Amino acid sequence: ITLTAAGAAASAASNDFETTPNTFTLGITASDAAGNTSTSTNITINVTDVDDTAPVVNANQTFSYAE
C-alpha cells in the first residue's frame, strides 16, 4: 500500500469488504523531499462496505417524480 500526495491509500490489490481481512495495520515513516525522516508509527486502515451491486433497469419500467 502506498499513499498518494493527498494522503489517500492506494494499493495494487483490490480491498473488497466481502473478502477478509477488513482491517490492516501498517507501520509508516514519513520523509520529505530531502530524505529527512520522522518517527515511525502504526496506522490502521479499515475497509468499509459500500453497495457495489450494479443497478438493474428492465425494459418498460415506469417511474414518477415530483417537480
Automatic annotation (TrEMBL):
Name all Cadherin domain ranges.
4-57
Give the signal peptide range: none
For the biological process aspect of GO, one term held by this record is:
homophilic cell adhesion via plasma membrane adhesion molecules
Tell me the superkingdom of the source: Bacteria
Q: Which is one GO molecular function term here?
A: calcium ion binding
What are its GO cellular component terms?
Answer: membrane
Q: Which PROSITE patterns match?
A: CADHERIN_2 (PS50268)
Q: What is this protein called?
A: Cadherin domain-containing protein
